[in-house]
Amino acid sequence: MNDxxxxxxxxxxxxxxxxLSGRTKDRNIGYIAEYLTAIGIDLSEVRVVPDIEDxxxxxxxxxxxxxxxxxxxxxxxxxxxxxxxxxVAKAFGVSIDVDPRARAMLLERIPEADLNEARLxxxxxxxxAELVANxxxxxxxxxxxxxxxxxxxxxxxxxxxDEVAPKLKTGVRMLAETxxxxxxxxxxxxxxxxxxxxxxxxxxxxxxxxxxxGRPNANLVVRARDEGKLAAALAAVKxxxxxxxxx
Length: 247
Prior knowledge:
Largest sheet: 6 strands, mixed
Strand order of the largest sheet: 2-1-3-8-7-6
Distance between the termini: 49 Å
Shape: elongated
Structural class: alpha/beta
Helix content: 25-40%
Number of strands: 11
Radius of gyration: 22 Å
Low-confidence stretches: none
Strand content: 15-25%
């Protein structure tokens, strides 16, 4: 559902003590950011919270009131510290129980004799939620209100994101162009600020790196939703760079 006249925003809530402790390195934030940008949704905020119900509920309620969508990753597995589903139910003020649809999905992969209490935790879904199919391991995510709850395992999260993407509202996409400065950031900071001020609907970012000869350099990324405004700002950046003394 694309509407090129509107902006669609999103936030990501990453849930898990293992992320905060460093035991697990997050691989989802960058993927989700690129994915949403490509389909016309702005990822405007990312928070990381521990496996503490009150913290999850508070963050979730703050974010879902502010953004079009809130995506969560982590905390929907079979162990005692997987409390995301319960926390989401509390945030929405609804009950939670084993969902027959989710239970049936688990049985596609797990024999009924092995469907113990721990595994059944993965079938507990807040009342009123839609299920998000999981082609990788069958245990579903879910979608309630504007909150989409996904697994933390990257391959499963990616499969769930593919499932929900066709149903998301999307807006005008951000366009971007990159220019290599061949100059130090400190030498172009002033002129770049002046260009940014002259083009208020365009975002201009500077990203430093060391070039092939070990010298400081920078890539300048110009972003805008309007092709004409992007072109005008890009031309100004290139003109500024061309006027610099060559090093």
